[in-house]
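Need residues for this backbone.
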């Protein structure tokens, strides 16, 4: 199939499933797409078990095999989605919660990575599934960051206090970038150990981390400032939309070429243009156009991404390994998430006040999504990849469907007092 035909297939199916969800299921749009696509995928698998000669899955998997999920998400969709998400975050609110966001996005990710990695390693070996600790740590690194695409989608259906929303949005945007950097470093160590007997040293790891993280932030600042200055001197909404598109695509391409963190660059550039750019460099008319344009881009790409997550079961099912153990890892990831939220908040609670119910809401609302699946699919082929992929997919589906559908009742229960919802505390 041509690129256009694949695009037509995905957009058409997204629109069709979205219509079914809107008319009948009435679930949140992205969760509804995942569920319908998942049900359709499982129905095809079951039908082929009953009538093997049908070969329906071949038609769909042929299309999916032509779509490199990792390339599509990490080197395509993610740049637009992160920029669009960051554009809508109020920097003043973000800045006032900087310590909490920063600790959860750095210390929290590191704590979660080691807790999940170690516990996964213990569980797998307990059940007789051999996996080196470093590869269990790779799984911990890819599953620890909350997915900004999934988390930001929550705010379309769940009403949370502004301060808590800022922490959830800011953390998910930043820890995604930090998490990808940690994942890159851990995979480099794992591959290095396997191929060269541990030739990668501490200095190599430090250099890789600095290039990815610091380089990404600096690149994002440069790109954001360049876009801001370009828009400052003109008042033509079509051209200014084009400038923001150029900022996203050129910056992400440069980041990939220079081995810097593209996600961090997008978050920084999005925050810069979404706050300083929209408030000082554009007219009211252009501001309205920019917000509507990026909101539409966000909605379309979100729909396609969550559709792909549901359909990928047709591909992943053929590689699935140790699904029973994967179910046991789900509570492990939730416990690690709780620890990674509890420790930073407990440290800061001596000086800052926090919204009632912040820890359980941040824990249950820390969704995993397509980025984790994309990272798992990007792993080099080895005897551990199938197990990591199975566990990752189980956690992601549970996160999107179960946590995504129950976070609103949890928020309503914990913040039932209207005065709490309107609180301006941390």
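Answer:
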């Amino acid at each position: 199939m041509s690129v256009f035909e694949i695009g037509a297939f995905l957009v058409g199916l997204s629109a069709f499933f979205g219509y079914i969800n809107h008319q009948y299921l009435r679930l949140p749009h992205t969760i509804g797409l995942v569920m319908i696509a998942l049900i359709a995928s499982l129905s095809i698998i079951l039908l082929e078990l009953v009538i093997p000669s049908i070969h329906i899955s071949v038609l769909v998997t042929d299309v999916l095999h032509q779509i490199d999920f990792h390339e599509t998400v990490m080197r395509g969709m993610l740049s637009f989605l992160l920029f669009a998400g960051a554009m809508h975050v109020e920097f003043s609110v973000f800045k006032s919660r900087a310590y909490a966001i920063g600790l959860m996005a750095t210390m929290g990710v590191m704590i979660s990575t080691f807790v999940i990695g170690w516990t996964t390693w213990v569980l797998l070996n307990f059940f007789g599934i051999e996996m080196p600790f470093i590869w269990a740590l790779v799984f911990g690194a890819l599953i620890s960051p909350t997915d900004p695409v999934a988390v930001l989608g929550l705010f379309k259906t769940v009403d949370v206090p502004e301060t808590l929303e800022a922490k959830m949005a800011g953390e998910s945007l930043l820890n995604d970038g930090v998490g990808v950097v940690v994942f890159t470093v851990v995979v480099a160590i794992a591959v290095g150990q396997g191929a060269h007997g541990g030739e990668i040293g501490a200095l190599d790891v430090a250099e890789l981390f600095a290039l990815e993280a610091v380089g990404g932030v600096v690149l994002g600042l440069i790109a954001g400032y360049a876009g801001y200055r370009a828009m400052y001197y003109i008042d033509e909404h079509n051209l200014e939309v084009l400038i923001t598109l150029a900022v996203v695509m050129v910056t992400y391409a440069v980041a990939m070429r220079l081995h810097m963190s593209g996600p961090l660059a997008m978050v920084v550039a999005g925050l810069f243009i979404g706050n300083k750019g929209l408030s000082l460099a554009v007219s009211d008319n252009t501001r309205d156009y920019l917000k509507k344009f990026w909101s539409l881009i966000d909605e379309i790409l979100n729909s396609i991404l969550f559709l792909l997550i549901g359909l990928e079961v047709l591909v992943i099912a053929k590689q699935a390994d140790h699904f029973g153990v994967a179910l046991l890892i789900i509570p492990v990831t939730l416990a690690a998430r709780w620890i990674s939220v509890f420790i930073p908040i407990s440290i800061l609670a001596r000086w800052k006040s926090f919204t009632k119910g912040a820890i359980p809401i941040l824990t249950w609302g820390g969704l995993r999504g397509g980025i984790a699946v994309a990272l798992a699919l990007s792993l080099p082929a080895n005897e551990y990849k199938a197990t990591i992929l199975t566990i990752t997919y189980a956690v992601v589906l549970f996160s999107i469907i179960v946590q995504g559908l129950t976070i609103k009742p949890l928020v309503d229960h914990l913040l039932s007092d209207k005065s709490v919802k309107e609180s301006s505390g941390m």
